[in-house]
UniProtKB/TrEMBL annotation, chain A:
<keyword id="KW-0813">Transport</keyword>
<keyword id="KW-0812">Transmembrane</keyword>
<feature type="transmembrane region" description="Helical">
    <location>
        <begin position="90"/>
        <end position="112"/>
    </location>
</feature>
<feature type="transmembrane region" description="Helical">
    <location>
        <begin position="161"/>
        <end position="189"/>
    </location>
</feature>
<dbReference type="InterPro" id="IPR035906">
    <property type="entry name" value="MetI-like_sf"/>
</dbReference>
<comment type="similarity">
    <text>Belongs to the binding-protein-dependent transport system permease family.</text>
</comment>
<dbReference type="GO" id="GO:0055085">
    <property type="term" value="P:transmembrane transport"/>
</dbReference>
From TrEMBL, chain B:
<comment type="similarity">
    <text>Belongs to the ABC transporter superfamily.</text>
</comment>
<dbReference type="InterPro" id="IPR050166">
    <property type="entry name" value="ABC_transporter_ATP-bind"/>
</dbReference>
<dbReference type="InterPro" id="IPR027417">
    <property type="entry name" value="P-loop_NTPase"/>
</dbReference>
<keyword id="KW-0067">ATP-binding</keyword>
<dbReference type="GO" id="GO:0016887">
    <property type="term" value="F:ATP hydrolysis activity"/>
</dbReference>
<dbReference type="InterPro" id="IPR003593">
    <property type="entry name" value="AAA+_ATPase"/>
</dbReference>
<keyword id="KW-0813">Transport</keyword>
Automatic annotation (TrEMBL), chain C:
<comment type="similarity">
    <text>Belongs to the binding-protein-dependent transport system permease family.</text>
</comment>
<dbReference type="GO" id="GO:0055085">
    <property type="term" value="P:transmembrane transport"/>
</dbReference>
<feature type="domain" description="ABC transmembrane type-1">
    <location>
        <begin position="55"/>
        <end position="239"/>
    </location>
</feature>
<feature type="transmembrane region" description="Helical">
    <location>
        <begin position="93"/>
        <end position="113"/>
    </location>
</feature>
<protein>
    <submittedName>
        <fullName>Taurine transport system permease protein/nitrate/nitrite transport system permease protein/putative hydroxymethylpyrimidine transport system permease protein</fullName>
    </submittedName>
</protein>
<feature type="transmembrane region" description="Helical">
    <location>
        <begin position="146"/>
        <end position="165"/>
    </location>
</feature>
<keyword id="KW-1003">Cell membrane</keyword>
């Protein structure tokens, strides 16, 4: 009985119910209840889907741009001494600059279109990727490098066949951080540089006092974020299962 | 002579994924005060599990454990453990001295007294000058000695040792064997030593318990009378040492899956 | 020595790169001013008191917010560790709220809470509390079982076990969560300032950008970087205090 009562779903349901009751008592569009939000979700459904499509498209583009440039750069910084020596403090310095602070400057150079937003997203995703790639490559087990040399691999082959796979678990962690940063910054950039996308939708509807629609947008973002997290976790299990299995084996030994 | 530690009908079944896994089946034995008992058995047969049950860290599925006549449910005062995974059993955020002091918490000593005793014990295990080092600054053998010093610090009547010397080189190992025996005698402690090394089991003990493969029972108790003083060269050449070693090795070989007739 | 040398080197390198771009004149100077111009712009903003005011507004919001949110997050993590039903509820809430960017709630929060400190408190708490909470819960649940056995052999009860074993062992992971939360607290404050457009560095950045006062934009970005580094250094100091052993251990292992 107590179990059922404290189940998260039950608590959530109770919270929604309480919210609905307060909303019914207040009877003003400025305090929408869950039913109003559901109604807005239904009414604006097609538009919401279109807007989140823009958001996701740019998030993916920014993430891809960052991954394709920053993972190789980070690995190289971790393997090549001189590059790491100058590169790492430079990256550490850039990392203290929050992504939204770059928006005004990017706007001056690239306007308010797709390119500007993708650049800011890429910058946000780049930081965890490059830092973790360098760290992973630097902490590569020395034996692995020796194995590469004993097999007569070239530097590039060692990077591709040994450094990259053994850095994968750490890169996966970085990719997870970069992906959520990409989504967050994608929405934020739309609120700051408005043209389209879910962030722009949120901004407009809330400024027009359509709070039910604003909440509907937030619900949609939350759902998309949850799905994204699940997808990443599932692909990690699929591709990196060996890593987690060997880790649990280690803790059990 | 009354027993210090007694186990009767001890069994342990883990709730495994497809089926439950029966590890221990009907283990009964006793350890007298100041007695040194070795336990040998194939790896994975449940030696660590048995020791955890004896220490009150793991509830047995059935059977009982008594220490000084009292039933064991929680870790009792007067029992110390040296864990198999010694490098993980030391607190990495505490120095060697503080790790040893942790073993004395139940004695209720003052700060200064505890500190002095910890340093004396570390000196006893040959770690004078390393009191302020952190575990990860010490070699494997040194970490093991810190773990032993911590177990000794509790002034326990019974020491449970889980393969304490498995990971050290041969020379250090011989030194630590003599050290352990010497300290146990000095502090008048009973010891239960788990090992998979038959030579070590015989060299150290007054009695050896030989375990079967899973589900694990006691195959045989081998009493020894090698005398109080042991010597790494002379003891190992004694006819009764060699006979006991022969008996145990034969027993273990017969219990191997290929040779198992039963 | 090298600890000091490397940031200086990085700064020098950054300045050299910057100046090289300026001299190569790939970008019009109007859009990419020389360092001297940026410094001048920064100095004049300081002379007018504009820079200090903005730094103070943004800094106080972000720093106070980060401190409060980390303490609350760790506290919730401790409470949830003691009460599994609370943990299930908080985990659900965390999963729902974590994907929501701070910016998304700002317009509505302005409407409900005005433009004062309550707005920033709300936004920072909503988005920043989860990293320290999740780190605390997961780290406390993952104590190495051998250490727990050691604690039981030493006669520790639940409270002593938490204090002497589980919490110290969890510190590195908890402080990683704290570090992350501290960076997002600053981000949340700046974004909120950009959207509300009243004061703080976020507001000033956009104001100067729309006025095309590019040297001042760059000077402000540099100031934000300094604020971010200062907050990062503070977290590092806390880390050394509570989990210095972990750094030293890793340094040896690597
Ligand atoms: N908590 C547990 N749950 C399930 N199986 C376990 C658990 N602990 C140990 N085992 C299993 O019990 C067996 C005996 O383990 P252990 O006592 O460590 O053996 P030994 O110390 O003799 O090598 C092993 O096969 C191990 O996988
Ligand atoms: Mg074992």
């Amino acid at each position: 009985m107590k179990r059922l009562f404290l189940h998260p779903a039950a608590v959530l349901l109770a919270a929604l119910l309480a919210w609905q009751i307060v909303a019914l008592v207040k009877t003003t569009p400025l305090f929408p209840g869950p039913l109003d939000v559901a109604g807005a979700l239904w009414d604006d459904g097609p538009r919401l889907i279109r807007e989140i499509g823009h958001t996701l498209r740019r998030a993916v583009a920014g993430f891809a741009l960052a991954a394709l440039t920053m993972i190789p750069l980070g690995l190289a910084m971790g393997r090549i001494r001189a590059l790491g020596f100058v590169g790492e403090p430079l990256v550490a310095m850039l990392a203290t600059l929050p992504p939204p602070a770059t928006v005004p400057v990017v706007m001056l150079f690239a306007g308010t279109g797709d390119l500007a937003k993708i650049l800011v997203i890429a910058y946000a995703a780049a930081i965890p990727l490059v830092i973790n790639a360098a760290e992973a490559a630097r902490n590569l087990h020395p034996m692995l490098g020796l194995v590469g040399r004993s097999l007569g691999l070239t530097r590039l082959e060692t990077l591709r066949l040994i450094a990259l796979p053994s850095a994968l678990p750490m890169l996966a962690v970085a990719a997870r951080m970069a992906a959520s940063a990409a989504l967050l910054v994608s929405i934020t950039s739309e609120m700051l540089l408005s043209t389209n996308g879910i962030g722009n939708y949120l901004q407009r509807e809330q400024e027009n006092f359509r709070l039910d629609a604003g909440l509907a947008g937030i619900v949609l973002i939350s759902v998309v974020g949850l799905i994204l997290n699940r997808l990443i976790a599932a692909s990690e299990r699929r591709w990196l299962g060996w890593h987690y299995q060997s880790r649990t084996a280690e803790t059990q030994a | 002579m009354t027993a210090l530690l007694e186990a009767g009908g001890l069994a342990k079944v883990f709730p495994g994924r497809p089926d439950p896994v029966e590890i221990l089946r009907d283990i009964s034995f006793a350890v007298a005060p100041e007695e040194f008992v070795s336990i040998v058995g194939p790896s994975g047969c449940g030696k660590t599990t048995l020791l955890m049950c004896l220490a009150g860290l793991l509830p047995p599925s059935s059977g009982w454990v008594r220490f000084r006549g009292q039933p064991v449910t929680d870790p009792p005062r007067g029992v110390s453990v040296v864990f198999q995974d010694y490098s993980r059993s030391l607190l990495p955020w505490k120095s060697a001295r503080e790790n040893v002091t942790l073993g004395m918490r139940r004695l209720g000593l003052g700060r200064a007294a505890a500190r002095d005793r910890a340093e004396a014990l570390l000196a006893e295990v040959g770690l004078a000058g390393f009191e302020g080092h952190f575990p990860w600054q010490l070699s494997g053998g040194m970490q093991q000695r810190v773990a032993i010093a911590r177990a000794l610090a509790a002034e326990s009547a019974l020491l449970l040792l889980d393969e304490p010397l498995a990971a050290v080189d041969a020379q250090t190992r011989a030194d630590l064997q003599d050290l352990l025996r010497g300290l146990a005698r000095k502090f008048r402690q009973a010891c239960l030593l788990v090992t998979h090394d038959v030579d070590e089991a015989v060299y150290m003990a007054d009695r050896v318990l030989v375990l079967s493969r899973r589900p694990t029972r006691i195959l045989r108790e081998v009493p020894l009378a090698l005398g109080a003083e042991r010597d790494q060269i002379d003891t190992r050449e004694r006819p009764d040492y060699l006979a006991a070693r022969h008996e145990i090795l034969t027993l273990i070989r017969a219990a191997r899956p290929e040779g198992a007739g039963a | 020595m090298t600890a000091l040398l490397r940031p200086v080197l990085a700064l020098g390198l950054l300045a050299a790169l910057w100046q090289a771009v300026v001299w190569a004149a790939v970008v019009p100077e109007r859009y990419f001013p020389p360092i001297a111009t940026v410094v001048q712009a920064g100095m004049s903003m300081i002379a007018r008191g504009q820079m200090q005011q903005a730094l103070f507004d943004t800094g106080s919001r972000a720093i106070l917010g980060a401190i409060a949110v980390n303490l609350i997050g760790i506290g919730l993590g401790l409470a949830a560790t003691g009460a599994p039903s609370l943990r299930r509820i908080l985990d659900t809430v965390a999963a729902i709220l974590q994907p929501v960017p701070p910016a998304a709630v700002v317009p509505m929060a302005v409407f409900a809470l005005g433009l004062g400190w309550k707005l920033y408190a709300f936004v920072v708490v909503l988005v920043t509390i989860w990293p320290p909470y999740l780190a605390t819960v997961s780290a406390l649940a993952a104590t190495n079982p051998v250490l727990l056995s050691v604690g039981r052999m030493a006669g520790f009860g639940p409270v002593a076990m938490l204090w002497h074993i589980r919490l110290p062992a969890a510190m590195p992971e908890i402080l990683a969560g704290v570090r992350y939360a501290t960076t997002i607290a600053l981000i949340a404050v700046i974004v909120s300032e950009m959207i509300t457009g009243r004061d703080g560095i976020g507001f000033l950045l956009f104001q100067k950008a729309f006025a095309i006062r590019i040297p001042e934009v760059f000077a402000l970005m540099f100031a934000v970087g300094l604020l971010g580094s200062a907050m990062g250094l503070a977290v590092s100091a806390v880390y050394r205090g509570f989990a210095g052993w972990h750094l030293a251990q890793r340094g040896r292992a690597a």
